[in-house]
Amino acid sequence: METTKKISLIEGNYSPSEAKEMLLDLYHKNINFNKVKNFSSQIRFGEDDKTAVENIENLTKAVNYLNQLLKDAQAENKNLVIKSVIEIAYENELQTVR
């Protein structure tokens, strides 16, 4: 059985405003997911979920970079060609979620 799957998420030519709406929504949903995950860890275990906190920091940096890229594209009156593929690989064992 093949253990890695690839699924196309985004593929096309977008205006800066279209790209902003689509991409920032994805990032903000991922940030919110990690905030909820961290909050749950704080309530259940009295401590931060280190992975979630790290993910929030990295995603926030990516949003800042993306915002600048989109501003530059808008200023230069350029469209953006975006291609995004999700790669999913199976692990040997289920990990216990803490």
Commentary on this structure:
This protein has helices at residues 16-45, 50-75; strands spanning 4-14, 80-89. With 98 residues, the protein is α+β, with helices and mostly antiparallel strands. It has one domain (4-89). Strands 1-2 form a two-stranded antiparallel ribbon.
Which sequence of SSEs, written as H and E, runs from N to C? Answer: EHHE
The proportion of strand residues reads 15-25%
Low-confidence parts: none
Q: What multimeric state do the chains show?
A: single chain
Give the integer mean of the pLDDT values: 94
Q: Give the overall shape, derived from the CA principal axes.
A: flat
Which SSEs are present, and which pair or pack?
Blueprint: E1 4-14, H1 16-45, H2 50-75, E2 80-89
Antiparallel strand pairs: 1-2
Question: Brief overview, please?
Answer:
With 98 residues, the chain is α+β, with helices and mostly antiparallel strands. The protein is built from two helices and two strands; from the N terminus they run E-H-H-E.
List keywords for this structure.
about 100 residues, two-stranded antiparallel sheet, 2 helices
